[in-house]
Design goal:
Elements: H1 2-8, E1 15-19, E2 25-30, H2 43-56, H3 58-75, H4 86-97, H5 114-127, H6 130-145, E3 159-160, E4 168-169, E5 172-173, H7 174-191, H8 194-210, E6 221-222, E7 225-226, E8 229-230, H9 238-245, H10 247-256, H11 283-297, E9 305-306, E10 309-310, H12 311-327, H13 331-347, E11 356-360, E12 363-367, H14 370-387, H15 390-407, H16 440-455, H17 459-470, H18 472-477, H19 483-493, E13 497-502, H20 508-517, E14 525-530, H21 537-540, E15 555-560, E16 563-564, H22 571-579
Parallel strand pairs: 13-14
Antiparallel strand pairs: 1-2, 3-4, 5-6, 6-9, 7-8, 10-11, 11-12, 13-15, 15-16
Amino acid sequence: MNVCQVLTGHGGWPLSIFMTPDKKPFFAGTYFPKNDRMGIIGFITLLDRVSSAWQNNREDLMNSSSQIVDALRKSEDVQGDIPKDIFDKAYSTFKYSFDNKYGGFGSAPKFPTPHNLYFLLRYWYITGEEFALEMVEKTLGAMRNGGIYDHIGFGFCRYSTDKEWLVPHFEKMLYDNALLAIAYLEAYQVTKKEEYADTAKEIFTYVLRDMTSESGGLFSAEDADSEGIEGKFYVWTPDEIKKVLGDNNGELFCKTFDISYDGNFEGLNIPNLINMSVEVDKKEFFKKCRQKLFDYRENRIHPYKDDKVLTAWNGLMIAAMAIGGRVLSNTKYTNAAEKVVSFIFNNLFDEGGRLLARYRDGDAAFKAYIDDYAFLVWGLLELYQTTYKPHYLEKSINLTKEAIRLFWDEENGGFYLYGSDGEQLIIRPKEIYDGAMPSGNSVFAMNLIKLARLTGQYQFEEYAQKMFKVFSSSVSQVPSGHTFLLCSHMFFKHPTKELVISGVNEQLDSESMIDVVREGFNPFALTLYYTDIYPELLRIVPIIQDYKPIDGKTAVYICENFTCQTPVTDPDVLRQSLLQ
């Protein structure tokens, strides 16, 4: 992606790079269709041109590749401060590229890119800019209603080939569904609209049903094709619908979900609600219809399942399910997240204790990359915030220290993509672009700040500060391409609240205090829970011993800028304090 940005001035995905045999890049670009289309060069034409250039102008290409490598190396040396108006600039980019009719940003193809929505929610939270929230809600609603969402079996496909979110690339990815679940959960926290909570629940239903191994690890993806035809598993004819539901019920379902004899996709139909909505009094009816259609569809030949377990993508879903367990008060999601963590720690470390990237059929391999560490630590931190079990916090600290040892650039700052014990490339790259997934550096910046403020080990935050400096040039050039890093920078710049809940074993008032803490959207708050149940927290965060219950009641200490308010023992008072 760095190569692409150097050559074209922007990033994107999917990404193609052409290199010399010694791995020096000379050309890059994003999203080439197979054939020439609407003024966009097709990949086949591009291959012909590259081949011709390699045969006839090889020396020029070799010189160009050397210059690109030099430019990449020099870009490492540019450091500075992220501009104060960076959040406003990113917001403006989204505001002017927003699709008011269909939601999302730009035109086709459209990718979910949930971290853009995370940024906009936080921007709304800080500034009160209502249009930021409107863009989030419009986009989430449009994606949920579109064909990119599987209305029969749940879960989101990879991206939409059109601006309406109707026709997806039918592949389903674990990481998309993890990141989208978080976006819908955050929107639910902000608005309390049940449709957002329902969408997150349906994503988890899909993942737990179709993407979870018996041992707890999560599979990577489901293919777009079945029987050699893209989307065949997901599309319908009106006659099929009526065969399953009966004529009258089938007619109503077809009318509501845009299923016709003309078809909306190559003569067949992708169920969607782009131009319709389900009335409240009909929800139960359509729920029963969906279940019948799902049972019928299960008899079709399924798309191929990519059943490898990737540490990084599992880390994202750990985070999502931990947040889901917390926000929705559903221990099923929390328990599933804990099971995934157990799977990783039991199966994805080598004999020397080194984290690995991939597991399949009893075989774990490949030294983990920075994304694996970053996303797993994110998941562990969210799981700690949900369960308050100190060993998750301790695991996140240990993994972070190991990541610093293996990946940190001591000279300039920032994390390299692969460890010092890994394969050496022409340069040791650092990824900062937040594309389909946030980069490992962007997520680790957030992890480091949270760890520092939870534990009092402020050397972690110093690493994050160095990251903001080393990546300032990239972020300043394309703010909207680094939205997760901007979320991390917001967390660093905006006043955060560190809450310490100090309770006594088996006290119900602790639960009521925890419930209050979790009521709303508080993206700049962190919580420690110290009680007789978890005395080992004292070893991890020694300063916690200074926070004690008051008169036998659970007390909540709200701290900001190294200063703590008078402890609160009443849930209503706590609720008011958190709103200030």
